[in-house]
Every structure is written in C-alpha cells, then in structure tokens.
Amino acid sequence: MNLLIYKTLEELNQDLADYVIKIAEMSIEENDRFNFVLTGGSSPKALYHFLATEGQHRIDWEKVYFFFGDERNVPANDDNYNGLMARKTILDPLGIKEDHIFYVNTTLAPEKAAIEYKKAIDKHFNGEDIVFDLILLGMGDDAHTASIFPHTTLVKDEEVNVAAVYVEKLDTYRISFTAPLINKADNVAFLVFGENKAEALKHVIGDTEKNVDLYPSQLIDPIDGKLTWFTDDKAVALLDS
Length: 241
What we know:
six-stranded parallel beta sheet; Rossmann fold; globular
C-alpha cells in the first residue's frame, strides 16, 4: 500500500490525474486499450475536469473504455446517477464514443441490472480473466467504498461479481462491484479527502485488527495489483505518524 498525502486538493487532483495518465499510457502500449473504472459522487469531479482538460491530448482516448464501480438505483437522467455526473464532467467533454462507455441499466430491477452489467463486462473481456487496469474508489465517512456499506450482504460476498445490495440506512438499492472483483485489478486508487473522512480512515488504515463488517474499505487489498491512497492532511489527521 502506498499512502500519498497532499496539502491542497489542487495538488492532489493534479497528481492523481498524472497517475491515471501514466497507467493509461502503459496499458495502451501493452494491450492497446485502457480499462478504466470510475468512481461516483462529488469527490472526483475536479479530477475528471483535470483529465478532460489538461489530459485531453496526453491519452489516446479512443482506446479507453469506461466502467462504473457502482451505481445508484435511479433513472439515468437523475442528478444522483453516477453515469450522468461522469458524462457531464469527462465523457462528453472528451467526446467518448457510446460503445466505449459501460453504463448500468437502471431501468431494470436492481438484481437484473447487476446480472446484465456483469454480462457486458464478461463480453468486453471476451472470456478472459476480468482484470481492470485501474479502479478508482472513494470512501464514505462510514468507511463504505463502491456500494459496499457496513453490515450489508456485500461485505461477505466472496464472488468475483457485480451484485445488487439493499442499503437499509439509505432505504434504497445499489448495484456494485464486489470486493473480490475490485481486488483483481492491476491498480486500485482511493480518492479520500476532508476532515469528515478522518475517523473512518483511522480505522481502515490504522487498525491492527480488521473489522470489515464495520469498515468495509478494509476489504480492498489487490491480489496482484497495487493499492494507492490519495489523501489530504485533513483526512489523515487522526492517523499515527
């Protein structure tokens, strides 16, 4: 694990953008494509803006395929739909072709949406092992990541899969990668900043004994890949030096 700490969000996002671009360049050189899993919410908006502007001419975007690590069970035109946020901030600005974007079909029931999304991923990988080049993750102040929330069925899901999960505290369903699917990636990067994340980060990184039911982000530990945390000094304030 690599923990990177920044004093400003601008420095953090610039460095994270450079990190994404470096992995993209390597993946395209080696495999002629870059399989990139986006994270949702508001935290990555600045990063996506960096990639769509400063990174516009640094990557062959026609060889990039975009996926979503989780999705909210809302219509595709809803402001809470992760795919819509990504479309506005990075996909449309870069002119990404529709057949290079893998959206979750939330017109389907959550369980069916998860099944169909996994089928689309399987087809893209053409029967080969599903190993994404880079998965971006966020973390909530309750230590959830993707839609693996505390005390939910996804915490104990050991399948390499996409699954539907009911999140009781939000009274809604989500569709999400499972931790075993995430852990197969070549590179996993957490984007976590702000003092509201400090308590969760202290437990996820700092605890000597794991309690994944309470702190699901502890589940993320790539099998053969690299794990990097991009954080700020506020988020790490409660960690031992």
